[in-house]
Sequence to fold (456 residues):
Amino acid sequence: MAKTLLRSGDLDDYQAVGGGGQAVFDSALQIREALRLRKQQAIVDCLAIPQVNDEGDRVDWYAPIPGEVTSWKAADEETRFRALRYLESTLDSAASLSRKCMQADKTAQQLFGSLLAKALQFPGENHVFLVDGMPVIAFWGFVNLNESTREDVIACLREIAIPEPIVIEEEVEPEPEIVDEEPVKVTLSQPDEPLISVPVNLAPVVNESTPPPARPEPIVAEAPAIEPAAVVTPPPAKRVRRIPMWSLPVAAVVVAAVAAPLLWNSQPSSSEPAPVAQPGPEEAAPVINNTPPLPQLVAVLPLRQAEFVAPPKKEEPRKEEPVEIAVIPKDVLVMDANEMKAGTTRFLNGDWRVIINIKDPVTGKAPALRYQIQNNKGTARLVQSSKVTCRADLYSGLHKTGELLIKSRSNARCTDGTRYPLPEITCKAGTHDVAECTARYDSNTVIPLTFKKTGA
Fold:
């Protein structure tokens, strides 16, 4: 019975993952068969069957079980919920089996465990299908380009429910009612009495513009001559003398005029007697001078012994040391700083000879690697002998940390039918932007390498 085709795609559009120096996709059929022999049919039914074309650059993925096919997005929520729970149980079983195999003594079981740990990785939700409600994963063992493996493999399938926003209605306070009130009656208080009051008596009114006499004279009232009565002299009326406000500054001027001669008289250098001011008729008491005498001027200034201050020494100009310009070889890989800031890798375009400080276990010599890269894509060529050569596709890119990454999509395919693992290369700019590169075969094997430009 023919299987149902789920999805097709080019291998160059994805990045293969693996473990133990081997890609999962290179052993996809062997992994499915090993799971079937270990009676892990639930895991086998979740993995689509790959079929590579004759050129080896495109692959078709078929459903392992018959039934009606539905994409993950087209399925309803209830079906996706059951499929998600099924995938969670399947991932737990695969992880448990992977840990058990990696703890085994045999190398083959350890390799199977490391490959199974990355086998259920897939690029995204558009690579998961439902066949009669059962989840099937296409392009398993791959992730999107320039992405790493996910810790939670099915995180992209989980839907996060966004809670509806809670609208809080604000309570509007009622406006206070306006009640007509009676107008408030304002009662003005009586004005304050003046500080200076003039007693009212029977004395005649005195004109303020006319200056009063120095001494008050009693007023004598005479009786009419018709009545024969004795002459009665009433008591003199008391008149209040008011001092006008303009007299205050006049008094201050008089005091200043009296005090000035006294101040000059207090100086010892003056020999003439100071004139005595005659008190006026309005002065009540003599003015007493309490001002301290002014200090005498000193004609001789205080002197002190002069001190000699040495002039500052002039600093000798420093001799500029000659700048040493390092000579950078023409054939090394230089990571141009301007291109790095712009996010391009034009400095990597060309043909390179990769020198790795290891020995091939077959030939006993360092592997002869040639990298040809143009616009972040290229090929790697490995020469093992005069008759056996290996090739693999490459891609490169800049990481967020500023490091240059060069990876292969899979192990190199050799003309004798074997596979040769290629390392993951990481480069960073060193002194004078010369690339410092390392080759990583696994988590425990990191070897330095060097790029040399070649003419062909």
